[in-house]
Amino acid sequence: MAPSPTNSLVPRAVSVMKRLINKEVGENIFQRSYHDHIIRTENDYLDAWSYIEANPVLWVERKDNH
Is 13 exposed, middle or buried, given 0-12, 13-18 or 19+ CB atoms closer than 10 A? Predict the structure, then answer.
């Protein structure tokens, strides 16, 4: 993939946002192993939407199994 302003600008903006939020909250609230993903297509969007919609249910199910 060719470099673009988005490839460098977005990660820097996210990093600044995370630092400001963590400072405001007083602790780190973001996952360490999380990797940002830029949604580029409708399929990317639909995959992300499905994950967000299903994740709370999966989290509860996993928590109940431990």
Answer: exposed
Each residue of 53-66: b (16+ CB within 10 Å) or e? Answer: eeeeeeeeeeeeee
DSSP class per residue in 23-63: HHHTS--S-SS-------SHHHHHHHHHHHHHHHHHHHHHH
pLDDT tens digits, the chain, 66 residues: what are they? 566 666 778 888 988 999 999 999 999 988 877 677 789 999 999 999 998 888 887 776 676 655
pTM over 0.90: no
User: Tokens representing 43?
Assistant: 């399929």
